[in-house]
TrEMBL record:
CDD domains, alphabetized: GTB_UDP-GlcNAc_2-Epimerase (cd03786)
Family: Belongs to the UDP-N-acetylglucosamine 2-epimerase family.
Organism, scientific name: Clostridium uliginosum
Keyword annotations: Isomerase
Gene3D superfamilies membership: Glycogen Phosphorylase B
UDP-N-acetylglucosamine 2-epimerase domain segment(s): 26-357
Protein name, entry field: UDP-N-acetylglucosamine 2-epimerase (Non-hydrolysing)/UDP-GlcNAc3NAcA epimerase
Length: 358
């Protein structure tokens, strides 16, 4: 089988690390990086650390409006598909790179394999929700990470080509988790590129906030950072480039001291901070689930989550982007650590996907 695989944004590099390893055992893969994420610590570091093969094509699309970014990707991907003539195009998740790959392929009748199909937040204002619904509608093979995702597709009348295989991100967590503790804490703290001077803590909370709905408004960033000021231990906060300016402005204007602002960190370092954190506060989809798999309680600053299974036993709890609610949820939530299921599989989702296609 010959695949053209489309990746472009941080979480897709992690997913590709798991799936490409399996594809390349017996099949051919042409890897296309759209260039949606282009900073070294948003992109290259993942390829180096996770041993992802070098992309065969890099479209270098970069930032832009949704339409421009998606359109530029579509033009580049169509050319590659016409030249490479793959059996399948493989797209991951819900980013603009996912949608661009799917639309380019469907028009020229190349079957679409969608990995991480069927997730829904039921919030059509999110670009991710638009991207995943449109991609699922035109995909031939829909590999779902959970049974909830299968049911979501069924409710939309999509039942053909739908397979519940488990989550490829879980494959990655279980594979790389083995590597993280052998270096010791100092190793990871020495690698932290802090944007504001701060001593290393003995224990910490971990935060990431990057969704448009939380970061397009400086008031929300203020609320979130002022909540962190009240935490009993420092908060490590690797900032996405889109939020960096506003975060630094709020930190400086208010002389906030309890948050350790850093550059984005690589995947394996992130697993270390996540596994050893007291709690995680995030609006990332991937990190909520990584928290669940790594046994770290999580507070998600969003109105909905696609990963509804994490809410059972309060392993994850939703909260508003305001100071009072964040403090309330972080300090007054009891997590039932005894009660956990492996909703996301056993680390063999990538194998199952390639076996099904074969
Ligand atoms: C994208 C995905 C989101 C995913 C996230 C993971 C879409 C619509 N959203 O959001 O689902 O959770 O990636 O990180 O595809 N920027 C840089 N350097 C980079 C990349 C981005 O400075 O390497 C800045 C640019 O100012 C850009 C902004 O971040 O305009 C947003 O980047 P974009 O790729 O459009 O979306 P994300 O917010 O990263």
């Amino acid at each position: 089988m010959k695949f053209v695989t489309i990746i472009g944004a941080r979480p897709q590099f992690v997913k590709a690390a798991a799936v490409s390893r399996i594809i390349r055992r017996n099949h051919q893969e042409i890897l296309v990086h759209t260039g949606q994420h282009y900073d070294n610590n948003m992109s290259e570091i993942f390829f180096d650390e996770l041993h992802i093969p070098k992309p065969d094509y890099n479209l270098g699309v970069g930032s832009g409006s949704h339409a421009k970014q998606t359109a530029d990707m579509m033009i580049g991907i169509e050319e590659i598909l016409l030249k490479e003539k793959p059996d399948y195009i493989l797209v991951y998740g819900d980013t603009n790179s996912t949608l661009a790959g799917a639309i380019a392929a469907t028009k020229i009748h190349i079957p679409i394999v969608h990995v991480e199909a069927g997730l829904r937040s039921f919030n059509m204002n999110m670009p991710e929700e638009q991207n995943r619904i449109l991609t699922d509608r035109i995909s031939k093979f829909l590999f779902c990470p959970t049974n909830t995702a299968v049911e979501n597709l069924k409710a939309e009348g999509i039942t053909q080509g739908v397979y519940d295989v488990g989550d490829v991100m879980c494959d990655a967590v279980l594979y790389y988790e083995k590597l993280i503790n052998k270096n010791g804490k100092d190793y990871y703290f020495n690698r932290l590129e802090k944007l504001i001077e701060h001593n290393n803590p003995e224990s910490w909370y971990l935060a990431t906030i990057h969704r448009a709905e939380n970061t397009d408004n400086i008031e929300k960033i203020y609320e979130i950072l002022s909540a962190f000021e009240e935490f009993d231990e420092p908060v490590i906060f690797p900032v996405h480039p889109r939020t960096k300016e506003m975060v630094l402005q709020v930190m400086n204007e208010n002389s906030f001291k309890n948050t350790i602002i850093t550059q984005p960190v690589g995947y394996i370092d992130m697993l270390f901070y996540a596994k050893n954190a007291i709690k995680i506060v995030t609006d990332s989809g991937g990190l909520q689930k990584e928290a669940y798999i790594l046994n770290t309680p999580c507070v998600t600053v969003r109105d909905q989550t696609e990963w509804v299974e994490t809410l059972n036993g309060n392993h994850n709890i939703l909260c508003k982007p305001n100071k009072k609610d964040i403090i309330d949820k972080v300090f007054n939530t009891k997590t039932d650590m005894e009660n956990k299921n492996n909703y996301y599989g056993n680390g063999d989702a990538s194998e199952k996907i390639i076996n099904f296609l074969r």
